[in-house]
Amino acid sequence: MRTHPLTGRIALVAGGTRGAGRGIAVELGAAGAVVYVTGRSTRAARSDMDRPETIEETAELVTAAGGQGIPVRCDHSDPVQVRSLVDRIAAAHGRLDILVNDVWGGDPLSEWGTPFWEMDLDKARTMWERAVFTHLVTSRHAVPLMLRTPGGLIVEITDGLGREYRGNLAYDLVKTAVNRLARGQAEELREHGITAVGVTPGFLRSEAMLDHFGVTEADWRAGGLTDPHFLASETPHYVGRAVAALAADPAVAKRSGQVLTSWDLAEEYGFTDVDGRRPHWDRHLRGEPELAAG
Questions:
Q1: Which residues are catalytic?
Q2: What is the Cα 76 distance to its own chain's centre?
Q3: What's the total number of domains in the chain?
Q4: Residue 47 in contact with residue 107, Cβ under 8 Å?
Q5: Domain assignment of residue 211, yes or no
């Protein structure tokens, strides 16, 4: 197995400031890729998410992991900014091999417990624009560059397989639409040699989720006292390793159009989370014990 199987590959992680995006960017870097990390939160100014994480921090983590991290501030809802970003990648490298659409920004817009007939329509519209339209804009401008080098991979980061209702109509519509983005892109790109898939993590132990439970990564298990499901959570590196494994798989095209899970990919490719565990969200929900990695 090659230590750096993605050496020479150029990746764009749209929405790489924190959470799954950061974990994916770092693991792509660990596999040797050049990773463009984009988002709206920089050291110069925070986005309206008002979180401390920045694209510069993520890029530095990518470089420290063994890749090359390049931070670029970009609002992916603005086609002009996205076009400028892709033009910059084209001028520097002449190619784009991996696109990860992970823009979200919907946490402050999610109205859990509110029936749809009482929802704030402005919040619902903004969630849609941030979490779906941004992905479409980014693919629209990135794919022409990807077409120059067949064998590329587009990964739509989603939440869930779309089989069950997610408890809030606006949220459910957004995440289901992202799954369909993967399917639709796969259908239209298949003849051009580009693969598109959706990938979902389980219970993601993101920076915001750690804050929500009042814990750190060092003592995260204490969050299980508030919600036992948290004990089956995974770090952003877990889904990051899933994406890196897909990007390094020469047979990835056979999966095009599918929505895949971090836990199934971990068992197939043999990777673990950073703590050596192999959490399996579906098995957890069925009440089955977590299997030891090995």
A1: 171
A2: 14
A3: 1
A4: no
A5: no
